[in-house]
Amino acid sequence: MTTTWKSGDKKPSNHEPNNTVSGTMLSSWSRQQKLAMMAGFAILGLLLAVSACSKQGPRPALVGVSSPASSSAPGATAPVAVTTATAAASAAPAKKTPKKRPANVTYRDANSGLSFLYPRKFRLTSGDTAQPQLATVSRNESPMNFVQPGGVTVATVALPGGSYPGTDFASAFFNVNVNRGVSEQECAHFAFVDARNADGEPVDAEKVKIGSTDMEMTSDFSANAIKQAETQYYHSYENGACYEYVLGLGTEGFATEGGIEHVNRDEVFAKLEKILASVKIKPVETEHGAEPSIAAIAAGKE
Fold first, then answer.
1. Which of 135, 145, 153, 172 is the most exposed place for a label (fewest CB within 10 A)?
2. Is 152 within the bounds of a domain?
3. Is residue 287 situated within a structural domain?
4. Number of structural domains in the chain
5. 260 within some domain
C-alpha cells in the first residue's frame, strides 16, 4: 500500500529523535561534571586541612623554663631557650674568691702576757731559738742589757735577707726579753749604754714614750772596715718584770765600691719601731691570782 503525502502536511523529521537524545545526554553529563567538580573541591579541601594539621604537629621541645601562668595569659612571651653552654654554666659551682690574708700577724705569749703585730713577710722565732744575731765585730749574738742576770728571750722577728737589694743591708730584727729578777728601779738602768760620745764615757739612758708607754732607751754601736752593727734597747717595767725590747741593724761590705749604697738606717728602724709601738702587755694570772711582784718575792725570801 502506497502512502501519499500532501504538500501541506509536515514531513516527519528523521533527526528530531536524535536531537532529543543528545540534549538528554548533555544535560546528564553536566550534572556529572558538577558532581565531579564538587567532589574534587571537597577532596582538595580535605587535603589542605590535613596539610595544615601536619604543619601544626608536635615539634622538638626546647630546653627552657616558663611559668604556667605566663604561658596561658594573653600576650605572654614565648619561653626563652637555654643553650647547652648556658645550662652547663649555671650548673657549675661558682668560683670562690680567695680571701686576702692581712698584711700583719699578731703574736701572743701567754707566759709573759705579751702581744704585738709584725708583718707577715717577716720571720718569727720564739723560745730557745729566738736569740737574735747580727754580723758584728766581736760577737754574733746581741746580748741582753739587764743589770742583773736571769733574762729570758721571748720572741724575735727578723726582716728577710733581701729586703734592701743593692745596699749594704745584712740583717735587722726586733727582739723581746723578760727578766723577773730585776726590780722596777733596776729596770730603768742598763748593763752598758751608748758610748759614742767624744770622750768615750757612758751616756745616761734617755726617757722616751713609745705609743702610750714610757720607756728607758739606750743604744750600742760597733764597727770595723767591713761590718757594722747598731742596737737600740728599750726597758719598761710591767707585771712585776722588766721587759726589754731590742732593735738591731747589721750592715756589711764597702758601700762606696761596686755600686753598693748605704741602706737607709732611719727607714729600717722605723719599721722596727712600728712593731714596738704595737706591743701590749696584759696581767699574767697564776694559780694564786696575779703574778707576784719582785718586792713580794724578795720579802718572801727574807
1. 135
2. yes
3. yes
4. 1
5. yes
Which amino acid would we find at residue 223?
A
Reported pTM: 0.61
Is 77 a member of any domain?
no
Cell numbers placing 294: 719582785
What's CA 52's distance to the chain center, in Å? 62
* Cα three-residue angle 65-70-76, rounded to 5 degrees: 105
Q: What is the CATH number of the domain that holds 280?
A: 2.60.120.1690
**Angstrom distances, CA of residue 125 to CA of 130, 131, 132:** 5, 8, 9
Residue 131 near residue 141 (C-beta atoms within 8 A): yes
Report how far apart, in Å, the C-alpha atoms of 107 and of each of 104, 114, 116, 176, 283 are. Answer: 10, 8, 5, 12, 16
CA distance 242 to 145: 11
**Is 225 within 8 Å of 249 (Cβ atoms)?**
no
- 125 contacts 156 by C-beta, under 8 angstroms: yes
Provide the pairing of β-strand 169-179 with 152-158.
antiparallel
The span from the first CA to the last CA of the chain, in angstroms, equals 195
Pair 72, 54: CB distance under 8 Å? no
pLDDT digits (tens, 9 = 90+) for 10-54: 545 454 455 554 445 545 556 767 777 788 888 887 787 767 766
Going by the DSSP 8-state scheme, the letter that residue 280 receives in this structure is: E
